Amino acid sequence: MALDTTMELIIRQLDQVRRRSRRLLTAQVAMSWLGGVVAVLIAAGAGDYVLHLPPWMRLALGIAAAGFALGFLGLRLRRATRFRPSLSDLALRAERLYPQLSGFLASGIAFASDRAAYAEPASTSTMADATIAAARERAADLPLRRLIDTRRTWHTALGLLIVLLFTTGVVAAAPLHSVLALKRWFDPLGAHAWPKRTEVRSLVDRAVCANDTPLPLEAEVMRGYRPGMRVRVHYHLVDEQGAAGPTQTLIMTEQKRNRSTVDDGASAPAAAAPPRRRFVRLVEIADGSRGATAAASRWSSLSFHFEAGDDQTEPQSVRLVARPGVIRVEASVTPPAYAAGLVDAQIIELQSLSDGAGPVRTIAALTGSQATVRFHVSGDVAPPDDWSVTLPGWAASPGALFGYSEAVGGETMVDGVIEARLEVSASIQSLIHLVDRHGLASANERMYRIEAMVDQPPSVSIVAPAHDESVLETAVIPLEGAARDDVGVEHVRLESRLANVSTASEWSLLAEQTGRSRQLGVEHDLDLSSMGLEVGQSIALTAWARDVFDLGGPRHEVRSNPRMLHIIDVATLTRQIHTELAGVRRQAVRIEAGQRLLMESETPDPLRRQRNIGRRLDGLRSQAREQIDRIARNRLDPIQAESLLRLLHQSEQLLNKAGTSSRSAQEQLERAKTEPKRAEAARQASRGHQKAVRDALNELSNLLDQSDDLLTMQLQLRELISAQKGLADATRKRPPGTLGEKVDNLSRADRHALRELADRQSSLAGKSGSLVAQMQSTSQALHRHGANPREQSAAAALAEATSIAQRQGLQENMRRAAELTEKNRLAESGSQQDRNVEILERMLEQFERLRRNEQEMLRRHLLRLVEAIESLVKQQKAQLARVNAKADLPALAGAMGQLWRNTLDVAALAAGAPQTRKVSASLGQAAGAQTMAVKALRDASVDNAAGHERVALAKLEEALKMAQQLSRNAGDKSDQDKRQELRKAYLKMAARQRELRRQMAPQTRVVEPTRREDLALRQIARGQGELRDELGERREQVEKTLVFLHQHDRTHQVAVVVVEAVEQGDRQPAILDDQDVIASTLESMADALKSAQRDDPFSRPGASGGGGGGGGGGGDNAGPVPPVAELKLLRGAQEAVYDRTRRLEKHVTKAGDAPPPKARWERLGAEQRDLAELGQKLQERLERPPPQAVPNRDQEPES
Questions:
Q1: pTM higher than 0.90 for the full model?
Q2: Rounded CA separation 956/966 (Å)
C-alpha cells in the first residue's frame, strides 16, 4: 500500500533534518580546527618571542603540532560526514521534542515504511493503520526542522570570528614580528632571529692574572636590565697542553649602584638612557685546600664569556701566571769577636716551603754580629733597582749590602736568590716585596726580623753573708761573691771599705777571680781582727764584676749593692742573740699550741698539718744553729759565751728532739693513711710522738722564759680580753624572755646558768687583780733597776697600764658585773662587761705603745744629753779663754779637773744607750784631751794646755753635733709614732660614732618608747658620753695646732650637745645630723694625718713646724701634726661646709618640704667665718720665720 501524501511529507522532513545535521557538524569541525590552528600559531609565536626557542625545538614542536592538527581534522571530519541517523531515531527525538507525538510518530513511520510486513493478520494491519492515522493526525502541522539545534554551530562560528579578529589585531599591531614568527615556525631552520632585548658587555680588560688569587670577572648590562635579572658567566680552565677543563657556570652578583652614563662618559638623566647595571663574580682558581697553589699552577689560562637574557659576549681568555714568592729563607749569624768561644755561629733556616702560616720569622743575634740572609725566590723577577722597595725595613740599615743572582744548580721552583748582608746594631724587621715583569706583586705578608740582643751588663751580688750583719771586731766572715752574664764574665772581685767615715775611702781588694764563662765566683775569709776596727764602725762589702763585652767603647763594669758589717761590742751581740731567742720562744709557744690543737681536735688532714709543724721546727732549729754559727764567726770569748752557748745548744737539742718526734709522728700518720688495718695503732703512736713534740717545746719555752715577763703579761692580758668578750657574748645570748625577771622566778636551769656566768666573771676579776699586781711590781722593779731606755719604757708602759686599771676600777667593775649577772640584770651586766673590754684594750695599747715609749725615753735621754754637752762646751770655751788669757794656771788646773769629771759623767750617761755609744766615744776622747790639759796646766805649759783644750773642745762640739742629730731623728720618730697613734684614735672614735649613729637611727622613728627602747637609748647616751670624754682627753695632743684644735673643739662641742640631748630622751632626727658631723670630722682629721709620713713641703731646718704639738730639742721636726696636715684638714673642712650648704639649698628648693631651721644656716655661716680666720692665721704662721733653736756657738761666753 502506497504512502499517503502526509506521511510521505513527514518522512521527507525527517530526511532533510538528517542531511542538514551532517552539514552543520562538518562546518563545526572545520571552524573549530581553523580556530585552534590560528590560536596555536599565535601562542607559538608569543612563546617563541618570550623564550627564543632554539631551531631544533621549533622544528620538533612544529612537526608535532602539524601532525596533531591533521590527525584531529581527519578524525573529526570522518565522524561528521558519516553522521546518518535512522528515521526511527529522528522520530524518537521528535517524540521527545513534542510530547503529543509520544508513542505514535516512530511507530507510524515504521508501519508506513513497510506496510506489507504488517498486513497480516488483520488485527495487526488494523492496529498499524490506526497508528499511522494517529501519527498523521498529530504531526500534520508540527515543524520537524526544530529537531536541529544550531546554537553550537553559531558558538563555534563566533569563536572562530573572535580568534580571527584577535589575530588580525596582533598582525596589525606587529606585522613584522608576526611575519617573523610565521617564518621562524614554518622555516625553523632558516636564519630568522628575533631582535635582542638585552645587551651585555665584558668589562674584563686584563690579559694576565695571578693563579693564586680569585679572578674578578665583571660585566655590564647595557640594555634590557630588569630587577632580579640573572647574569651568568661560563668559564673553563685550560692547562699548559691546551686541554680544557670542564665548563662551569656561575651566577654573577649585581652591584646595586646605578650606571646611567653614556659611552662618552658624560652624565645623562636616568630617563634619557636605559639603566645599566654591573655584575661581578670572583672565580676561584685554587680551591683553598692544602696544595691548592700547586694544583692551580697547572692551569695556564681561563676562557669565559657572559650571558644575560638573550645576549652573550664573545669568549675571552686570561693568562694565569704564578706570583713571585719566597720559597726558602736561610740566615747565618757570626757573633762579634769578643764572644768567640762563648757564642756559636748560627745557620738557621728561617722559612721553608713546608712552613705553615706565621706573621714573623725572627733570628736573634748579639749586637755587633754579622748576619747574612738569603731569600730563594720564584717567578720571573727582574733584579731590583730600588732596595728600599724590595726590603724597605732593611735598606736603611748602616753598612747593609744587597744582591740578586739567578738560581744555579737546578733547585726546584727557585728562579733567583736575593742576599742581604747586615751588621746587627739594632733590631730591624722588614717585608720582602717582589714584582715580576707582568707587574704581579708577591703576596708574602710575613715579616723577617733580626732581633738585636744587647749584651746586658753582668749581674753581681754578695752571696755570703746573705744580709747585713752586726759582728764583733774579732770576727772571721766567710765571703762569697757571684757574677753571671748572658754572654760571659771575665773578672770578679771582692772589695771592702769603711762605711761611716767623713770622706769616702777607696775600695780595698780582698780577692779576685778571672776567666771566661757565664758564671764566675770568688770566695774569701775576711778576718776583721787584722783591720783595727772599733765599735760603731761599719765595713761595706761589695762585689765588682766585668763581662767580656768589648766593641771599642765603654766596658760593662758593675758593682753590687754593699753588704754592711756593723761592728758592735760583746754586750750588744749578746743582747741581739737574746732577742733572737725570745723570738724562738714565741714561735715555739705557737707551734706547741698548734700541736696541742692537732692532738685534741679531729682535723680532715692531720698529716699535712703535722708536716707544716715539722717545717716550722726546722726553721727554728736553723735559727738556733745560725746563732751558734754567729758566735763562732765572731770568735766570742769562750768564757763570755759559755752560758749563752750552753743555752743555744740546749735549745738546739730540744728543737732536734722536737723535730725527730715530729718526723716520727709524720711517719705514723702516713702509715695510718696507707695501712687502714693498722690505722688506729698508728694514730695512737703518732699521738705519743706529738706529745713528745709538745714536751720538748714546753721545755724549750721554759728554758727561754728567763726574761720574758713582759710577753707573759701581754699574753695574759690578751687572754683576759678574749675571756671577757666571750663572757659578754654568752651574757647577750641569754633567752630574752628571762631579762628583767627576778631570780626567784627563774627556773633552776636558768639560775644555774646565771650562777655559772657570775662565777666566770668573778674568776676573771681575780685574774685581772693578780695581773694588775704583777704588772705593778714588775714596773716598780724595772723602774728601780732599769738602766736603759728600753727597760725604762717598759716600766712606763706597765705603770700606765696599771694606772688605767686602777683609775677605771677594773677589778671592781668585773666584780660589779658578776653581781649584776647573779641578779639577772643582764643588760647592765653586758654594758659593764663591754666597759671592762675597753679598759683591758686600753691596757693592751700600752704594751703596743712600748716602742713609742722607748722612743720617747730615748728622746728625753738625748735632750738631757744635749743639755749636758752644751754645758760642757760652754765650760770648755770659758776654760780655753782663761788659758789664752794666761790666768792663774794652778787654779785653772783644778777647774779643768772638775770639767774632766763632768765630761766623764756625761760620757757614762751617753754609754747607757746603744744609740749614743758614738757620742760617748767622742766624749771619752774629749776627756782624754782634758786629762792631758790638766797635766800641761800643772806643768805651767800654756801652749800645750791650750792645744789639748782646743782638741777637747773640738771633740765636745763633735759629740754635741752627733747628739743634736740623734735628738732630731728621735724627735721625728717620736712625732711619727704620735701621729700614727692619733690617727688610729680618730679612726676608732669615728667608727664608734658611726655605730652609735646606726643604733640611734631606729630611735628617731619611735613615737611611744618602750622600756627596752629607753634602755637602748641610755646605752647610746653612755657610749656617746664616753666618746665625748675621750675627745676631751685627746685635746692636749693637738692644743698647739690651729685647724686641728678648732676642729677638735668643735667636734667636742657637738658631742656635748648630742650627749645632753640623748640623756634627756630627745629622739629628734637632727641628732643624726650632729652624729654625722662628728664622724665625718673625725674621719677627715684621720685622713689629713694619713699622708703626714711623707715629706712636708713646709718643713724647714730649725723650724718647729706649723703644726706644733711636740718636738723640741732638735728643733727641725714637724711635730705630730705638720703644716701639710693642717692645710689638708682646712681644705676638707671647707669642702664639708660647702657640701652641707648645697644640701640645705636642695632642701629649700625641694617642693613640699619645710625650710630648714634658721639656726642651721647661722651655724654654717659661723663655721665659714671661723674657717676664714683659721686660714689667715695659718698663713701667718707659715710665713713666720723659724725660731733659732740652737744659740750661736761662735760667740765667746763670759769668763
A1: no
A2: 15
